[in-house]
Structure formats: C-alpha cells, structure tokens
Design a protein that fits this description.
5 domains, 34% strand, 17% helix, alpha+beta, Immunoglobulin-like, Jelly Rolls
Length: 922
C-alpha cells in the first residue's frame, strides 16, 4: 500500500460540439475534432465557440502506471464542469454529475486497462435549463460551459478519507472533525487525527479504530489558547488525518483551518471581539482570457497582492463559488471573504432544491476557511420576486434560518438589495446605490443621510420583516467608471480583446467597446484631450475623484460601518474596476490606499471654487476603523501650491474604533492669485511618536478677484426678458436693455420668431438651455433633452463631461473633464442635433457616456443667417450667479464667446442695430 499520488490531466484535449446530441464515445473521430485547453470554458477559446450553448464532447488519452491496477483505487476527479457531465472510460459510462460549480469524482479502477486508456466527457449546458439552475453572472456577461477547473487522476488506497470537515471554536479552542470514508471500510482501520500549529508541531491528537462497514468518524481535539486568525495575523493550523493498517500508512489527508469569530451587534462588525470597519471590493472572479478559470496560482497571488496594496481588507466574491485556491490564498493573506451562491433565473420547486443542495455542498467544501465571514443567499432579487410575491419572501426567511442553523459561525445576508427590492431578515443591513460623481454629489449625500438613519426602503414594506435596528449598515455596491488603455489589452498579434464585441444589448449600447477610438476621433476629442490614451487617463482620474469623495462621505457617518467598491477589476466592457481586466493598475493605484485606510483624516467642504478674498472653511475629521483607541495623535494642515501659505494643527482626542470625530476647523481667506489656478489643502495625521498614520487632501480652484465685465463686451447691450437674469447681469456690471432692437446680444432659454429674426439679421444669441420649463426644441434642429432617466445620468455607466480649456475657457484650470469646482453648474440637459463636424470645430463642451457613446453638447456655437448662436446647458441659476465663482466666470466666458467679433479689427465701438454707436470706455 502507498499514499496518494496525483497526476493532473490539464492541457490540450480533443473537442467536438454536438448541437444535435447525436455523438457517442464510439463516433468521436479525430478528423472532426478541434483542440481545446482544459481547464477553461469553451466560450473562452475561440470565436467559433463563443456563443455556443448546448452539448459538447471532450476526449483525452492517458496511461496508468501498471502498479496502480493492483491493490489501489484510481480516482478520476473534476474541479468543476458546467453543467451536466457524463464520463466515459474506455467507452463505458463511469458516472454522471449535475452542477456547474463544485468538484466531483468517480472510482474508475474497474474501467481501466493496462497501457493507454481513453477518457471521454460529454458536457451538456442547454439554454432551456438556464432559468432554473444556479448560473450566476452568466446571465450578465454570457454563458460559460464545459470543464473550467482542473481534471486529475489519483491513486489512493481503497481505504482512504473521502471528505474532511473542520469546525473550530475560538473561545474553547475545540476542533470538531468529521471524516467520511467511501462506501464504508472493508476492514478495521486505524485513524490518527492530529492538530498541528503553523510550524507543524503537534498540539493534540487522537487515534480511533474504524470497523469494517463504517463510513463516518467524528472526533474532537483541542488547542489550548489558540491564536486567532485575523487580517493582520492570518494564523493557520492544520488537521492531518492518517489511515494505517499496522505499520503501513494507507492514506494521509491534511487541511488548513483557523480560529476566528465574526459578530454583528450594536450596529458594528466584530472580528475576534474587536470592531472592524469593512473596506471591501466586489470581485466577480472573472479573468482576461479564461473568463471563469483562475489562470494560475501566480496570477491569483499577484491580484490579491494588488488588492492589499489598494487598502482592501475584504473581497465580496460575487455570486460565484470560486476555485478553492481563491479561499486558500485569502486564508493565507488575511483577506475577509463575503461570498455568495450563484443565482438562478426564477424561483421554482426545482431551483429551490438545486439552490439548497448547492449551498449545502458549498458549506461542506468551504466551511473550514476562516477567511469566509459572510454568505449571501440572493443578490438584488435575482431569481426571486420579493416585491410582488409573498411566498418568495417566506421562502427567503426560511432559507436565512436554514443557513444560520447549518453555519452559526458566519453572518448571513438574505438579499443584498437595491431599489426596489429589500431585506426580509438579515445579519447585515446593506444596500447598493450607484451615483455619478461629480455630477450627483448631492444625491449621494442625500442617500447616505437617509441610509444612516435606517431608511424604511431597505426592508420589506409588507410587515413580514425581522429588523432589530442594530444590524451593521454597509453600502455594499457603489462605483464609477474609468476607461482602460485599450492598447495594453491587445493580444500578441495586436488584436482587440474578443469582449470588445459584447455589451451592445445593455443601456442603449453605451457599454459597447468596439469602435471607441473611431468615435473619439469623429467627435474631434483629440483637440480636447490630445490622444485617446490621455482621455482614458482623465477618465481614471475622474473615477478616483468619485471614489475618494464617496468613501470620505461614508467615513464621516459613524452609523455606516463599511462599504464595498464596485469593483476590483474591470469585467469585459464594465469599467469600474480599480484594476483593468488584465490586472494593470489604473492611474490612481498608489493613492487609493490612503483613501482606503483603516484610519483616515477627512476634509469636510461645501465648495471648492473661490475668488480671492472669499472665506474658505474646511472641517477636519478623523474616522478610526479598527484596533486600539487612537490617542495622543496630532493632525496638521496647510495650503500648498502658491506663495501664500496657511498652516494649522490640532491635538486629536481619544477616538475609539468605529467612531468619527471632527477635530478641527480650518478657516482662511482665499489667497490673492494673478491667474486662475488650483491649490491643494493637505492634512496629515501623526501618531504620538510622530509616525505618519494617514494623509489626505482636497483641491481648490482659485480665481483672481473679478473687477469688471470683460473688455470685449463691456459696453455691449444685452437683451433678456428674464427679470431675475437681468437683475443678475446688471449686478455683475453688464449693460441690459429691454429693447431687442437696441441689443447686440440677446440671452434667452429658447428662440421665438423675434429672436430668430434678430440672429438672421446679424444679432448674437446666448441660448441658456438650463432655464427651460420643459425639454424640447430650443432652436431649429436643436433639441434639449433632460439627462434624468437616460444613460446621460451617468449613475451606472459613467458620463464624461468635458470643457475645452483653451481660448476664452482657458480661465478654468484643471480638466478637460469637470471636477468639484463645477459643483453648482452641473448641467441637467444635453443638446442634440449637432453633427460630427460641429464637435470638431465649434463644440466647446460636451458629454459622452461609457465607451464614448451618445455624445451631447453642453456649450456649442452655430452660425445662423448673418448672426451667431452660442448654446449652453450648464446650470447658471440665479443663486449660482450670485455667489459661485465658477458660474460667474462661465457666464463671462459665454458672453465673450457670443460677442466675439462684435468689434472689428481697428475699430473702437460696437455697432448697434439702429445705426447708432456705443462708445467704449478706456
């Protein structure tokens, strides 16, 4: 007898698709075979198989050493195959399996022959079963079929351990061990069980004799004063099970485990009895070439290392039962794992049965991993209809209690919700909310305010809930897009990734990557951003701007005890990753850990644009997430970037884990500057011994004092029928007339016939389409469309709003994408009706969605007759024109743009339509 020996069968296999379900092992001919790599879904391997769902066959030949055929069991194992599998050895059926996520194995000893053996696997993944079987994100990114985890053959003693479950208890140090043997042992066998520490020194052991016919053994060992597994100290122990027959070792199996506790109480999460703030990221567990299949241990190690570098302490493995290596590495590196079962399409008796069986098998396979702290049953009501079906709500509550009974050592989330669905009973009160930043900063703040107050919308309104009011609040999905550099995603032949041709069916096609550079060039965006690569870098800067603000806003609310960023990596066309699909870091990689730290210093601000002399006020707060109380620390701050400096500091009071305190208020006059610029307000938090704990900043846009109306239009007569606007224009120093025939410039929200005649005869019109009472036609051929309820909202696939920072608009520093300094002027409308050549010449500001789709105009020019129209949708409200530095200068720029050329070269007066002249003052 010898111990286990395993050979992987991964590599190149023969492959046949079988749409008619007519092939058999005997009709698989090499002449008609394709080659395929195992493991990996067949959809990942060539364009020919990309969209195929149905039946396919795999075949491989292998040789078994002669001594394996005597006194041994030869086991054929599969990591995971999606979905139905029929396995044939030398033409005879060895077994069948249903399920796409978990391992299965067959004893194939009786089917083997000396020399070369044949293995054929028929895999069926018919689309008609999709609705009722667990399939996860396959309904989102496309079907995945076939052998997607490793295949192996293994020699074992006929007496061997088939499964090993470990349940550890930190307070007592007790280790419960459940062992299963195949079909009962044929003779009495000694079973030695031992617990080893991290250095493989034995701590406790026991020996039992299992009699012939017995198939299960339960044992209990103890570790005195065990070391707790944690994110900072991921200590692991080993259980080793050895079967012997006298002096002969028959079989040895080892499995790592750890001791830890996880609790949700008093609105906080506790790991090993200590508060921990969840800094998590959603991980779809998808890969660039192999889709579902982990490319290698090294690839996974690199990905997890980058996640650590980003400041992440938890991975929400999204609706997929991952490869076991995923959880093993999380155990070793100290990641918390919040994992979820793959969803189905509809809740039926079959999907209920399959879902529960899958969950039970996941608990058996993965229950020993200390990294796994939480299970989700349903995500966003996928596979249920909680909103309309009382029976589904009853089922979910029953399922929650079933999981709690099966695994009391972990947290359980019933449904991880978004509007309009909700919780029924859950250990965590989490919610998903997507909000484009900087456009919808106030909406984000309003959501956080209501969520922190335990808004009623997070739970069912039907009276069938169990809600204590002490469940920890977690924002479990949020994020913004930053497009990847597509040149680094190309393959070795220079081809775009295959997934560039996916996504067309989502959100009016705005997430479809194919042709993105062509669209970029057709819109003349090179004159704004330079290169397409520069444009992608700017979108990634905006992604960081958004994440930074959203995380800081959450950390300021102590009621919220964690968040989950969507997501760790881009997934195909979905580009909200912190890394791109190939795991290349995005531009903000080395700054993210400061925002994503356990203890952070946070700026609290109301605006970021100021004119010189205006009072700037910034609150300075500290959020302390985990560990011992923060005490004896000091925070300091300063304004950088100019000749004028401002300094301040404050001692930090004691702050306990999970708490937030404002520790200072910086107040100073915006410095005098010669030209518009950006300056950075920097804060540093130092420990009592001087060590730097955290640093943060906020960028301010500073303008010189506005002294008067721009010279080029100082004496231009401006006509408007809007009384409030007329008042504001006069307050800003402009000349306003109530007679159109005396005006050189008219300002209106839309053009009536009188204004059209005015422009055709040579007048200038500034059309402020932000002042509409309703969207619609504002000028011949030009429509104003509300962004709300359209992809232009940018709350899912982000919008990218740009302002060309040249000419009259060079007065706006930063960019080309807008930032927080445009907070008060965010446009609510876009203009359509402009052609590509308009974008290349006369569009000064625009918007695109996702992969440069649905272009819209925010500032543009058009000639009309002898005159000119400048269109604008930036929100120049009366309030903004009273106080906001950006709004005032944007209006100045628009009026200069529409008035450009009113004074011909060499002249000193503006000709008015009556033939009289208005003198220009010196």
């Amino acid at each position: 007898m010898t111990e286990r020996t395993r050979f992987l069968m991964d590599g190149i296999w023969q492959f046949w698709i079988d749409p008619a379900d007519c092939l058999t092992p005997s009709t698989l001919t090499p002449e008609t075979a394709s080659s395929i790599t195992v493991p990996s879904p067949w959809q990942s391997q060539s364009d020919e198989f990309r969209a195929y769902s149905g039946t396919a066959w795999y075949r491989q030949h292998f040789e078994v050493p002669a001594d394996w055929l005597t006194c041994s069991s030869v086991i054929l194992g599969f990591g995971a195959v999606d979905y139905f599998s029929s396995v044939y050895v030398n033409g005879e059926k060895a077994g069948m399996n249903e399920g796409g996520y978990l391992p299965f194995e067959f004893d194939i000893t009786s089917f083997l022959v000396p020399g070369i053996n044949s293995l054929a696997v028929c895999v069926s993944d018919p689309p008609e079963i999709f609705a009722e079987v667990p399939h996860g994100k396959q309904g989102w990114y496309g079907p995945l079929s076939g052998i997607w985890q490793s295949v192996w053959i293994e020699r074992r003693s006929p007496a061997h351990t088939r499964s090993l479950e470990i349940h550890s208890d930190l307070p007592s140090g007790c280790v419960q061990i459940d062992i299963e043997f195949p079909h009962g042992l044929t003779s009495s066998t000694q079973v030695n069980i031992s617990v080893l520490d991290g250095a493989e020194a034995m701590i406790d052991s026991s020996t039992s004799t299992v009699q012939a016919g017995e198939s299960v053994l339960h044992a209990a060992l103890r570790v005195p004063k065990p070391d707790a597994w944690s994110t900072n100290f991921p200590y692991l122990y080993t259980v080793r099970v050895t079967l012997t027959d006298g002096p002969d070792v028959l079989d040895t199996v080892s499995k790592l485990f750890g001791f830890r506790t996880i609790e949700a109480r008093d609105g906080k999460l506790y790991l090993n009895g200590e508060v921990i703030y969840l800094r998590a990221v959603l991980d779809q567990d998808y890969y660039p070439e192999t889709i579902y299949t982990t490319p290698s241990d090294a690839f996974l190690q690199d990905q997890f290392t980058k996640a650590k570098d980003l400041g992440i302490n938890c991975l929400r493995c999204h609706i997929k039962a991952a490869d076991p290596r995923y959880y093993e590495l999380a155990d070793q590196m100290g990641f918390l794992i919040w994992t979820e079962i793959p969803n189905w399409g509809i809740l039926s008796s079959r999907s209920k049965k399959l879902g529960r069986e899958l969950f039970e098998d996941i608990l058996t396979r993965d229950g020993h991993h200390p990294s796994i702290i939480a299970w989700t049953i349903i995500n966003e009501d996928w596979g249920t209809d909680l909103v309309h079906e009382p029976s589904h709500r009853i089922w979910l509550k029953e399922m929650y209690h079933w999981v709690k009974e099966k695994d009391p050592t972990r947290l359980v989330i019933d449904n991880s919700p978004c509007t309009p669905n909700f919780h029924i009973e859950s250990d965590i009160e989490d919610y998903h909310f997507y909000c484009g930043i900087p456009d919808h900063r106030r909406e984000w703040d309003a959501f956080l305010k209501s969520f922190a107050a335990r808004a009623p919308y997070t739970y069912s309104p039907h009276g069938d809930i169990v809600r204590t009011g002490h469940e920890p609040l977690i924002v479990s999905e949020f994020g913004n897009w930053g497009l990847p550099d597509i040149d680094v995603l190309k393959d070795s032949t220079g081809r775009d990734p295959w997934w560039f041709n996916t996504g067309l069916e989502w959100s009016e096609g705005v997430v479809y990557p194919q042709g993105v550079k062509t669209r970029f060039n057709n819109l003349g965006l090179g004159r704004v951003f330079g290169t397409y690569q520069s444009f992608t870098m700017e979108t990634q800067k905006q992604e960081f701007l958004a994440l930074k603000y959203q995380i800081e806003a959450m950390r300021l609310r102590p009621e919220i005890q964690g968040y989950v960023i969507t997501e760790l990596t881009d997934v195909h066309w979905e580009c909200n990753g912190l890394l791109d699909m190939n795991r290349n870091p995005k531009i903000f990689f080395y700054d993210m850990d400061k925002v994503n730290a356990g203890t952070v210093v946070i700026p609290e601000w109301e605006q970021t644009a100021y004119s010189a002399g205006e009072t700037v006020r910034i609150g300075v707060s500290i959020a302390h997430g985990s560990g011992k109380p923060l005490q004896g620390a000091e925070v300091s701050w300063k304004l950088e970037g100019g000749i004028h400096t401002f300094f301040g500091s404050a001692m930090v009071p004691v702050i306990h884990a999970g708490s937030v305190k404002r520790v200072g208020l910086a107040s100073f006059a915006a410095p005098e500057v010669d030209a518009p610029c950006q300056q950075r307000f920097v804060m540093e938090l130092h420990a009592k011994d001087g060590a730097l704990i955290n640093t943060n900043y906020v960028d301010f846009t500073l303008y010189p004092r506005r002294k008067n109306v721009p010279d080029s239009i100082r004496d231009a007569a401006i006509f408007t029928v809007d009384g409030q606007l007329a008042y504001r224009l006069r307050a800003l120093g402009y000349s306003v007339t109530t007679a159109l025939n005396l005006a050189q410039i008219a300002v209106a929200a839309s053009a009536d016939q009188a204004l059209l005649d005015f422009v055709q005869s040579g007048g200038r019109l500034l059309l402020l389409a932000d002042r509409l009472t309703q969207p619609g036609k504002v000028f011949p051929g030009i429509l104003a469309v509300a962004r709300s309820g359209t992809p232009w909202d940018g709350d899912w696939a982000s919008t990218f709003t740009w302002l060309q920072r040249s000419g009259l608009f060079s007065r706006f520093p930063g960019g080309p994408l807008i930032d927080h300094s445009f907070d008060c002027v965010i446009p609510e409308y876009v203009l359509t009706g402009f052609k590509d050549w308009d974008y290349q010449r006369t569009v000064r500001s625009g918007i695109v969605v996702g992969w440069v789709h649905k272009p819209g105009v925010l500032i543009g020019e058009k000639d009309y007759g002898k005159g000119k129209v400048v269109f604008n949708t930036f929100n120049l409200t009366d309030e903004a024109l009273s106080s906001d530095a950006t709004a005032i200068r944007l209006l100045d720029g628009l009026l200069e743009l529409v008035g450009k050329g009113l004074i011909p070269d060499g002249e000193t007066s503006i000709k008015v339509s009556t033939g009289t002249a208005v003198s220009l003052s010196s």
